[in-house]
Amino acid sequence: MNTHPQRVAFEAREMAQTLITIRDAQKTYHSERGDIAALRDINLDVAAGEFVSILGPSGCGKSTLLKCIGGLHPLTGGAIEIAGKPVLEPPEDTGFVFQRDVLLDWRTVVDNVLLPAEFQRLPRAKWEPRALELLVTLGLEGFGSRYPWELSGGMRQRVAICRSLLLAPGLLLMDEPFGALDAITRDELNMELERIWDRSKKTVLFVTHSISEAIFLSDRVVVMDKNPGRIAAIVEIDLPRPRSLAIRETPEFVRYGKELRSIFENLGIMKRSAG
Amino acid sequence: MRKSFSASNAGRTANVVAVLLAIAVIWEILVRLFNVPSFLLPRPTAVVASLYDDPAYYLRHAWATLSETLLGYCSAIVVGVLLSIAVLYSRIIEQTVYTFLVTLSSIPKVALAPLFIIWLGTGTLPIIGIVFFIALFPVVMNSVQGLKSVEPDMIDLARSMRSSGGQMLWKIRIPNALPSMFTGFKVGISMAFIGAVVGEFVTSVKGLGYVIISAQSNFDTAQMFAAVVMLAVVGTALFFTIDFLERTIIPWHVSHRGATAGAH
Prior knowledge:
By secondary structure, chain A is α/β, with parallel strands linked by helices.
């Protein structure tokens, strides 16, 4: 267990049903120069319906952690459970969004969104209306029959989000989904994600290296340190929802930003700014 | 966008025809002017006359060359693609058959043409064999490369959707490999055609390669040129057929390439 000031909040949350349990998770890569500990002693519980960001510098293992939770990489020690079942392979009822949109060039937008249904051998006729509805929700009405290369980077990532939401998964794993986008598109998509989450109350694990993105979206921010990758702190974000971009100018938001920055400064990851 | 592309295509064809005509005219004038003996360099009109004289003869032999090429080439595609899938799934096949092919690929394959006559006798079979053998290399190399060059993220994506092995192959790996495969098919068709003509040089009683060899022994240079013209026509037709198939089967790739490298 982590011994942090957030202990009280943690206990309060134990009321809610825990969806993800991570116990002493370890991930070690073997290389010619010896073993590299990508993850060490990760302990984390995520409640159903919670939005949790995993924040850290590059190389801290945050993406690795997400891929382990998503069953894409095996752990080398410890255990991850989702809804009481150990994760040994990619779990059902989970959507994944990657940093790159990984759309299939040979499929139209709507066929890309329908991919999860196709892989599960679900009838297209039943899921196509849902796919088109999602495209409308994400502002892509009328783009269903276009090909990915006809779209901008922001639009492509919206398609990838539609794809991850198609089967209405209870858990959404997002690996720096907006990291490759320009700041304005990123703000827009942050807004939309917040809105979608607010309506559906999915459990979301969101990997990012942006402090303000993490605060804006999350109920809790998990701060990771590197060498080896481990949890350094967990910060509860108590801001009202729904949130708009204007919330970033409020004193509370600014205070959370300072708090997170000081954690990185204390870890020696960020240089201490003057004053 | 598509319209202007086909319009520029038609313009390019007109340009090619104009250049060829101009060369023929200059050639004709020079040969007449300097009185070049026809066994050294026949006049273009003599070449046309030879074609016009007995078109059935040239068509029959062109058909022979074309059918040998297509039979060998199509078997090379079927075997080559299946082999590349086997290489993808079997380490043993990769380490044996594929390694062997890669090693062999550095030698000029036409050098083995006489061997095929020893193995397969005379007639069209050794020629089909040569065509198959020569076309197999680019098909296998490019297919293997295409099947293997799937982004790791794309594999992770399919796995996160709990895809089956068959779905991974049919819905991810093969479509992803098609552009690379078509590169191999295009190189392959040129090589296959070369293989057929070389095969006909070495052994045959029909085909355009045979026409060239027999015309050579009669010093009928106009006939040799006529056969070369037929080869150019058939070869171009073959290449554009594959090009057309590529546009039809993988329009997403061709259009994409057209958008990024529009001017060619």
